[in-house]
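Final report, results section. Input specification for complex C-07:
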Amino acid sequence: MSDLTKLTAAELAATIASGDVSAVEVAQAHLDRIAAVDERVHAFLHVDTEGALAAARDVDARRANGEELGPLAGVPVAVKDVLATKGVPTTAASKILQGWRPPYDATIVERLRAAGTVMLGKTNMDEFAMGSSTEYSAYGPTNNPWDLGRIPGGSGGGSAAAIAAYEAPLAIGTDTGGSIRQPGAVTGTVGAKPTYGGTSRYGLIAFSSSLDTPGPCARTVHDAALLHSVIAGHDPRDSTSIPQPVPDVVAAARLGATGDLTGVRIGLVTEFNGEGAEPGVMAAYRDSIEALTKLGAEVVEISCPHFQYALPAYYLIAPSECSSNLARFDGVRFGLRTGDDGKHSLEEVMSLTREAGFGPEVKRRIILGTYALSSGYYDAYYGQAQKVRTLITRDFTTAFEQVDVLVSPTTPFVAFPFGSRTGDPYQMYLADLFTIPTNLYGGPAISVPCGLSEGLPVGLQIMAPTMADDRMYRVAAALESTVGVLTPPAL
Amino acid sequence: MAAISREEVAHLARLSRLAVTEQELDTFAGQLDVILQSVARVGEVAAADIPPTSHSVPLTNVFRDDVVVPGLSQEAALSGAPDAEDGRFRVPRILDEEA
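Structure output:
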């Protein structure tokens, strides 16, 4: 493995800026690493070798011309395949979009290009971001670099695994119910869900529009903050984008890295007392609380009585929104069309196309969402779930009147073996038990490695108030300063 | 009694424009029943006086000046379509010859 692939994004940027190494050399080192290990990891669905090298050459040329470039210029980044990339295949890991090359870039991708980052390719995921293990990709699962027989988390398992396997220093994920944080936790990497509306959804293939949030994946908190600051900010093309300045998350990460949390009040969610969680996960969680206390933080217990209803509310709201959002995949404007042989009606062609193009988890959620929204059940299910969302938001508001951040384990269990939960969808849904409340509330949250259990990574989740993303970066960086960065076994 | 029957799943699939196999009907009916029984807990706490929240960000209409800006070309808009004809999306016939 090239030494360049071991560097953090911040180190790579500094090395490129100093002229010691070119952006092309950095891109090539990562492309070589992908060629060497991705057959075993399968983090990527598409590697854009030519595009990456062209972008790197452009950075080198601009630097040679004396142009002042951004803090991540020349640094490679991998992008979850749910974001539209102009001319580069974008499938959301679904057969229904196989071969689709979008005619435009998502805003996040535009910003990555403008910042001079080098897009290596598109990462694997659960189909349409529906899943907690990346086992529901139509193109086969991603393997966890810590143990290739285990899941890398989901739905952004490809992005997290690419980071953990040193195939990319940075990646973009999207988080609807934990899809950045949960893969971050089980691969020993950092994953941050920004405030909903803090990052643009324009060009993101929608799953659950009121919850979907793009965000950064990295190996260090500082790197995640650097990427966060590049992609965040108001976008007039997204009506849910918040027209406010982005907090200085990079400065917050630097402050946290000093290891001083004096004056910071941290709340432990009483209801996340370990029920349903593995003992090893809870042990690592308790150790990290002790570490935060030693750094000067004041730790108190905070009751959030309605968090226990977040999972059921989410599994009504998200499928309801997905059943509506995925109606656009009907074989008319995108990708696959099946049964157009002159013998079937338009409606039959749509049904056959969707049958052939969607996988089992997507179908299950479309049907569940159609049920929850149907006449006679709407009030009992969808309407009630939206009320629970109000109650959870009130829990957060009350909590943040007393503490700066809330913490919990990110996941109830470490990476599990493939196939061990696919037979029982509700057991799979439990993987997102701790991450979902913050999606319903809309606030930011981050997962940072906090130790090992049975030799596998455990993550600590830090949740902050809406538009106070900087707070979570400070606490995460402080923990990282004591726990350190986890290193997976050599591949 | 099951909360969701095999026949209901078939009906919902039709509403969703989703052809499903006989085997999928059996599988989904069982799984959706378990999921629905679990998620029905939302009814335990949400009283009538609690307002629903559809979105964590207040939604407002976004207006802009009516200025012509570049959009996708016709060719680009059709580039991902499974079939196109005369610059339009081509879809299977929806009317009979006699209609």
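The two ends of chain B are 46 Å apart (CA to CA). The longest strand of chain B covers residues 84-85. This concludes the modelling results for the funded period.
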